[in-house]
What we know:
The chain is mostly helical. The protein contains 18 helices and no strands.
Amino acid sequence: MSAPLEQRGSWRDIFSREYLPKLATMALALWLHASNSMLTATTMPSAVEEIGGLDFISWTFALYLAGSISAAASISLLVARMGLSQTMIRAAMVFTGGSIVVALAPNMALLLLGRVLQGLGGGGLIALVYVCQDRFFPNHLVPRTVAFLSSVWMMASFSGPVIGGAFATLGEWRLAYWAFAAQGLLLVPAIYFLLGSRGTEVSVAAARIPVVRLLMLGASILLVSISAAYYHPLGSPLLVLLGGFALVLFVYRDVSATTARMLPSEMTDLSHAIGNGILATFLLCISIMSFVVYGPLILIELYGLNPLQAGFVILLESLAWGSASILFSGTRAAMEPRLIKAGGLSVLLGLVAMAIVFPRVSLYPLLLAVILLNGGMGMMWGFIIKRIIGAAPRDEKDRTASLLPITQQTGFALGAALTGLIVNGLGINQDPDPTQLKSIAFWMFAGFVPLAIMGNFMAWRFVACQARGD
Length: 470
């Protein structure tokens, strides 16, 4: 390992004069990506009234996600070519340009182009946040850093739709994107003056950007997203399979490449800590997506909540994740393997609890199950990131750091698509009856229990590999 795992960091350490400017810059970069990923949820209904394109609303999220993940995958190569600060400045400019295109878009085609650019810029920024975290913060401060950034993500995931909804309510949906364009421009001088990268560059040979592999990755995300947006009993499962095949092909082509490799070579090695840790993260991220996708519908239709109340219940997911990250961030290094195991087990038990409680129309037990499910991810998240990056050789650290948001976002995308397959496979319609909703409320969680079991198994293997020093 490149840094000792035995040291403990404090909040005073990361808020010191040395680290606070960097942390603030990273927080703004993360905010721009996280808040914009769901901004279209509340702005697009107003947008399509003005410019049309109702059938393409789902593409505004799918294209953002595809651009985001593709950009994150190529970040290590771009950093090797241009340096950390220049890469981050250019990502901020691409994001800003995309926001301006959306704000000016006279039709849906240009709006979608703007969303692709926003995704490329935002995905690059979030991957660079992870690279900055490794470059600027010693390994023992990573759990505290992750806890702080998780709280920013928590606020952004709630604020994005609220900000969009506020502008849309005023009849000025375009101003939401102008506001984020201004924030993107603000990030540029922050990177230049506050972040800096002198003395942090890693000597890695620059290489060309592997366009074919990136197209494979982007295609896999689009195929999976389309399968959920346009359900067909035969076509949607086929699209998920094709998307999964494209993703696997991308991974294996990349790790076997002799040049322009974007992923760490240990990613597919299940005898190494990185391979086990990444697979555990991927499986658990897939497992926790169902509530945010169809939870609001069931809360409104079955529980009788209004949309605002349902939104606050969904917000509890982010609150539980962020709060657990903060609560456990100061844990002694010797306890970290136990928290990784306990966090994975909490996710599994949370899924089982959700499957039991959600169909029973019991709100308070449901809230406890939500906390158990997402608090488990928060409990382990900072430590699994710390130890995955710590297990990487020095020349693989940028690849490993940028891989983490790719893993998270790809897992979320696949989890959302699989949830759509489960729910639509059960025959949901525009006016579902309570019996049907109760069946859906059970299977949308029970269906992911096998994946959570596999994720726990890989998490235990990850801890065992770390103990052996693999």
